[in-house]
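hey so u asked for the seq, here:
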Amino acid sequence: ISLRFAAGLTVAETARAMGKGEGNVKVIQHKAIAKLREMMGQPKKRPKPKVYEKSEKA
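ran it, structure tokens below
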């Protein structure tokens, strides 16, 4: 997480730095974010955003 977000590395750069494949980095990132959400008391999945229709102005 620190390489991806604090250091601003791409998935490819993070994979090289960790000696892992890009797919593995994505899985590790996904699991780490889910764990952080759990630790913060947030739901595992983000709620879907509400979609509002544009109101017509008179």
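The chain has a mean pLDDT of 87. Residues 14 and 20 are 8 Å apart (CA to CA).
lmk if thats what u needed
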